[in-house]
Design brief:
The protein contains five helices and two strands. The chain is mainly α. Strand 1, helix 3 and strand 2 form a beta-alpha-beta unit. The two termini are 24 Å apart.
């Protein structure tokens, strides 16, 4: 969740060419988890760097954070469905399609 806000700071000490090259690695090789209360701001931050919606996956920390009601996780998932900056195909990708491509199997 913090990556969008620190990417420029992290790469600020390198040349513009190195910054661009590293950003391409982030865009092409990394996948991004949308979990948590930072959605939609986290996702908008990633998209601002040109990271494609095809690299976003819906994730939660369930069941690894004890005491958090399942309704909290549902609220995180609902935020994806309500996002006005994602179209229906992109939302489907975030919910399950991108993970299916990543892992090569049907996870739904």
């Amino acid at each position: 969740g913090s990556f969008p806000s620190i990417i420029s700071r992290m790469l600020s000490r390198v040349s513009p060419a190195a910054f661009a090259a590293q950003l391409e690695v982030f865009k092409q090789r990394l996948w991004w988890d949308t979990a948590g209360p930072t959605f939609p701001f986290q996702v908008k931050g990633l998209l601002a760097y040109g990271i494609g919606t095809d690299k976003l996956v819906m994730g939660t920390d369930y069941p690894y954070v004890p005491g958090v009601p399942v309704q909290v996780y549902k609220a995180f998932a609902d935020e994806v469905g309500e996002a006005d900056f994602l179209n229906a195909t992109e939302k489907n990708g975030v919910y399950h399609g991108n993970a299916e491509r990543l892992f090569g199997t049907c996870l739904s």
